[in-house]
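Supplementary Methods S3. Complex input for the zinc ion-bound model.
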Amino acid sequence: MSELVLWPDPRLKEVCAEVPEDTNCSEIIATMLRVKQDERGLGISAPQIGEMLRIIVVEDLVMINPRIVKRSEQMTWAQEGCLSFPATCPKYSKDGQFMRAGNTIRVRRHKLVKVEGFDRDWQPIVVKGRDWKGVCLQHEIDHLDGITLDNYRKQYLL
Ligand SMILES: [Zn+2]
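Predicted complex, serialized as structure tokens:
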């Protein structure tokens, strides 16, 4: 069973706390990776599994306390889906057959972001994300501040 937190759960609107340095986050990270894989997501944030902490995963990249330190002036339009809004994600049958594309939301994003944070061993890391990876980083970091796709589309229809 997935522990995925779905909109409009109020936890998705909370600002998450910084993780105190050297906290062992391995259990939370393992759950995030499992749920992301089960749901075929590109990324996931800790509040989406009900952990109100600043942790994100983008593909295989795990970041604790991520902070955007630089944003390009150049912007891009992204078509985004979110695991907490199932209608925006592609749908698969029980045996894994593709059923339909997700009803994605159009979001204006910075084309390139530079993000500082820590890896799961509390080593400082700096990541530059451009295009879809930058979009994904911005989307997941939004979650840590209680910002979700409905912020970008006021009359969201599930
Ligand atoms: Zn999301």
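Residues 82-84, 139, 143 surround zinc ion (CB under 6 Å). Strands lie at 43-45, 55-58, 61-71, 75-80, 91-92, 98-100, 105-110, 112-118, 124-130.
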